[in-house]
Every structure is written in structure tokens, then in C-alpha cells.
Design a protein that fits this description.
Number of domains: 1
Distance between the termini: 19 Å
Helix content: over 70%
Number of strands: 0
Shape: elongated
Largest sheet: none
Length: 164
């Protein structure tokens, strides 16, 4: 499947917009978590922390799913999953982002919220180390994915390996 010139331009623009929304929402989540863990008592935390899940559910997750869906279309329409190794590296990074988000950010915020509701909220890194670390790691991985997209390092298989 090949995209025409206009189709490719639209896909590129849409991909940049959705990836930017995804990245921006993760940065906002990190800022919200910093405010929750370092600037609030248990009562305020239990009021504000559910909004972290709301931003994830309503902004970050849809943008991430749209970005990944576009990546699948790109892979089918020309870039290929393994034709260029930098594309394969991006897919590995996306898998890492799924783990960082599910096992890290969201689950760690849930644990902290439950602790706060049970009266065991201390704040700072005592309660927020897991969520903050996993979210910071997401930001680092996303910046690395952006760098791969911009610089497209020469990781292409040799012509003899691809049969060209």
C-alpha cells in the first residue's frame, strides 16, 4: 500500500500532532504528579490525584493509540517494520512505553492514592518515587523516539541482506 504525496503529507502532519499531544500530556502528568507529591497534604492529594488518571484516560491514551495506529500505517505504506532498523527501534521503544505507563505511572499513582485514602500518605519521594521515576523514564524514551524520527540514523540493513 502506497500513500500519495498528499496522503503522506497529511499522515506526517497528523502523526506529528498526535505524537506532540501524547508527549505534552505525559509532561503535564509529570508536572501534576510533582504538585501532588510535593505540594499537597493527604486531603488535597486525594482530591487532585484522580485527575492524573483522567488526563491519562482522556488525553494521553487516545493520542498514544492514534500515534501507534499511524505508525502501523506508515510501516505498511513504505517505511517497513524492519526495512529500516531505526523504525524497529521505535517499535521497541513503544513497547517499553506501554510497560512504563501501565506498570509504572498508572499503577504507582493508584497505590499512592489508596495509601492516601487509608491515611498513610507522607508525600514526596516516599509515596511518589515510583510514579515519578516511571513518568520521567517515559519522557526520556519519548525524546529518544523523537530523536530517532528526526535523525533517522543509518541503521539500515545492507543491500545484500535485503536482496536489493
Amino acid at each position: 500500500m502506497r500513500l500519495g504525496k498528499r496522503g503522506a503529507q497529511f499522515m506526517r502532519l497528523f502523526h506529528i500532532v498526535t505524537a506532540s499531544i501524547w508527549f505534552g500530556s505525559v509532561v503535564c502528568l509529570f508536572a501534576m504528579m510533582c504538585m501532588c507529591f510535593f505540594g499537597m497534604d493527604a486531603t488535597a492529594f486525594t482530591t487532585v490525584a484522580p485527575y492524573v488518571d483522567a488526563v491519562f484516560d482522556w488525553v494521553a491514551l487516545p493520542a498514544a493509540l492514534l500515534t501507534v495506529a499511524q505508525g502501523v500505517v506508515y510501516s505498511i505504506a513504505g517505511w517497513g517494520f524492519v526495512r529500516h532498523r531505526w523504525v524497529l527501534l521505535k517499535w521497541i521503544a513503544v513497547a517499553a512505553l506501554v510497560v512504563l505507563t501501565g506498570e509504572g505511572t498508572i499503577s504507582q499513582m493508584s497505590v499512592a492514592l489508596e495509601a492516601a485514602k487509608a491515611g498513610g500518605f507522607v508525600g514526596g519521594f516516599t509515596d511518589g518515587a515510583g510514579a515519578l521515576t516511571f513518568t520521567a523514564a517515559q519522557i526520556v524514551v519519548m525524546v529518544a523516539v523523537f530523536a530517532l524520527s528526526v535523525y533517522k540514523p543509518t541503521l539500515r540493513k545492507s543491500k545484500t541482506a535485503t536482496g536489493e
